[in-house]
Every structure is written in structure tokens, then in C-alpha cells.
Amino acid sequence: MLEITEEIAHIQGVPKKLIVFLHGYIDSDTGLERVIGSFTSKLKDCALHIPQAPLVCELHERKRQWYSMHRFDPNDDRKTVPTMEECSALYNKMRPGFAGANAYLLPYIENLLNEYQLEAKDLYICGFSQGAMLALHTSLMMEEKIGGCVSFSGILAASKYIEKHIKSHPKTLLIHGDADNLVRFEAMNFTKEKLKALNVPVKTYVVKGGQHRITEDGLAAALKFIEK
């Protein structure tokens, strides 16, 4: 069984909150750490953990993935199909990938909560791209309601499954660049409407001119959301 055995941790003060930040596809814990430095430096009384996905990336042997994208979309059609409906249909096929990732992510999170003697309400799951999709999926499928979820350039993948099996309704922030060329900008509104229909409190932040990356203003919005 896969386990998360590598991570980067930043502990500020006496942790009253736990942030688990999930890196994207073809990335790593060290790659994400470099990008979110300004976010990390401003945390107070908080434990930030950046776990490394245990799967070697199918496209780059020195990078990682939470699950295989090509297993479900071998030609990357999700990036080019003309409609959001077609795009969502491709992401709906990825439910087995999330189930596999949750099998090792959920025990990791539970161990961290026990380590810091914190409760689900003190937990914030953040993620970028594939990590954002996993963050959304995990936060909605946890038995207890967590403090919040932050999605950078993500989408509510496996939405058909979530609609039938949602377990929790955490406050959620969606951050997306309006010039994103990999996970289309329309995914933000699609995700927002799906979450609203499921009675999940959701807010959005648009990165003007933002492409498929984490930006400083996006990190500032995430920090404000978590602190509030």
C-alpha cells in the first residue's frame, strides 16, 4: 500500500491550525515550497505541511503525481474539447484516481492532526492544479467538516460522484487566473455553481491575466481566507 513518506514542514509558534498544501502534477514538495515562500513566512501559530506524492510522474521521472492523468485522458483532451460539459465529462472519469490518492492522503492527515492535537475544524487543505482537485475532493469527502479548502487553478473533478456521496460542506475558496491555458478559467465558475448547489459556502478570487501558476495576489487571498 502506498504511503506518504516525504514532506516539508514549517512550524510557526504553537500550532493552532494545520495547513496541508498539495503540489500539482509534474511537480514536487520542493517545487511548491519555492513558490509559496511569501505565504509561509506570514503564517502565525500554524503548522504547514507540504507532502510529496508517493507516485513517480508518468511524464517526468524526477517529478511526482497524485494519480495518473493519462490513465483517464491519454490524449489530454480535457485541455482542448470545446465545451465545459465535455471537459467535465473527462474529469468525471478520474474518480478512481482520487480514491487511490485518498487511501494514502487521509491517514497522513489524520496522523498530523493527532500529532498536533488538533481537530478537523483546525485543518485547511490547499492545493494547486491536480493538487487543488485532490484538495477539493478530499475536503468534501471527509467525515468531519474541516476549517476550509483553497483551490488554486483547480476544478471539481469527479463531480458526479461528489453530488451523490458528499459528506462535508467546508468553506471553500477558488483562485483561478483568467488566462489559464491548462485548466480553463471556466472551471472556476463551473466549480462554484456545483458547490453552491451542494450547499458548500464558496468564494472566488480571479487573478487578472493569470496563467496556470500560483501568484502572489492569489497567495495573499488564501492567507486572508485562512486567517479569517
Provide an overview of this structure.
The chain is of the alpha/beta class. 38% of the residues lie in helices and 20% in strands. It is built from 8 helices and 9 strands. The strands form 2 sheets. A 7-stranded mixed β-sheet has the order 1-3-2-6-7-8-9, with helices on both faces. Strands 4-5 form a two-stranded antiparallel ribbon. Strand 4 and strand 5 form a beta hairpin. The longest helix is centred in the middle third of the chain and has 22 residues, at 95-116. The protein is globular. The mean pLDDT is 97.
Beta fraction: 15-25%
Approximate helicity band: 25-40%
In angstroms, what is the radius of gyration?
16 Å
Report the major sheet.
Answer: 7 strands, mixed
> What is the structural class?
alpha/beta
Number of helices: 8
Query: Please, what is the average pLDDT?
Result: 97
Distance between the amino and carboxyl termini:
37 Å
Please give the number of β-strands: 9
Q: In one word, what is the shape?
A: globular
Q: Largest sheet, order of strands side by side?
A: 1-3-2-6-7-8-9
Strand and helix order: EEHHEEEHHEHEHEHEH
Poorly predicted runs = none
Write the layout of secondary structure elements.
Layout: E1 7-12, E2 17-22, H1 29-35, H2 37-41, E3 46-51, E4 55-56, E5 64-65, H3 84-92, H4 95-116, E6 123-128, H5 130-141, E7 148-152, H6 159-165, E8 172-177, H7 186-197, E9 202-207, H8 216-227
Parallel strand pairs: 2-3, 2-6, 6-7, 7-8, 8-9
Antiparallel strand pairs: 1-3, 4-5
